[in-house]
Amino acid sequence: MNEAKQMHDDLLNALLPIIPRTAYRDIRRLNTLVWAIVGLSLKHTVRLGAWAEVLESRAQYAASRVRRFSRWLHHPALSPPQWYKPVLQAALIDWPLDRRLYVALDTTALTPFVLIRASLVYRGRALSLAWRALRHRSTQVSFEAYQPVLNQVRAIVPAGQVITLLADRGFVHEQLFHYLRKQQWHFRLRLPGDTLVHLEARPASPVKDLCSPAGEKRFFHEVSILGAAVGPVHLALACLLNQPDDPWFVVSDEFTDAQTLDEYGLRFDIEESRPSRETSLRGYPLGSRSELPHNRVAMATAAGSARLASLCTFLA
Q1: Does the bond joining 112 to the residue before it have cis omega, within 30 degrees of 0?
Q2: Is 196 exposed, middle or buried (0-12, 13-18, 19+ CB in 10 A)?
Q3: pTM (two decimals)
């Protein structure tokens, strides 16, 4: 038995008891997902012709095998959340409720689409929790665009789990702060330099005016931010010696100290995974006008990662 067939059989046997039949209905759909994961794992690309090279099928022509993947990617009846939720929950089954989940929110440009993704950051790795592909001109997206991703995370993560959201400057929206407080999520968000800060007995000023000298840190507690004076929140400001022109302005719902900056720094674990992720996702022909194939590819990537993580006791 070759490597591709062995991987296929192992993954299929692992996923069959996890994904309910009501999600895929036809075993051939689940089988195609597994072959997609095998193709991604062995070929490191989403180019369908490369996947066809590892697919074992009665089809004599490569074009027939490519069409099989294409039909699956564009099938309107497939719901990625219904397929992925049980896989991820199986991977997280032994995660202690009292251990905090650090969830990083980011975007990836796949012109003319943007992939919005929320990932669990753990031990230097990023495991996809939820995602959304949409046609958009830039990676700057509105709260309304990424709220469905946050809602997916809520639906997947067990109730009572302590969550801390990590996000860069592009996600600082007033609606997000209200959402996080309603869900009782913690947050460590990086602020743009022109974000207004309201200090007691002082006029509002841009956060960049409060920045510390290079190599130093400053912390402010019980302040409000933005024009709407959202608060109380807490700030951790730092100007790194090796990046004096790119200071960190981090806002938190919890009292800030040096650890706050370390926690925000965890989101760079997802940055490190971005080059390989972008390279593989861009292998798909982007002439399609639909977001469906991008969501399916993201599901195949995430499902393979989550299941392999579980098998390798990655979350142990």
Answers
A1: yes
A2: middle
A3: 0.80
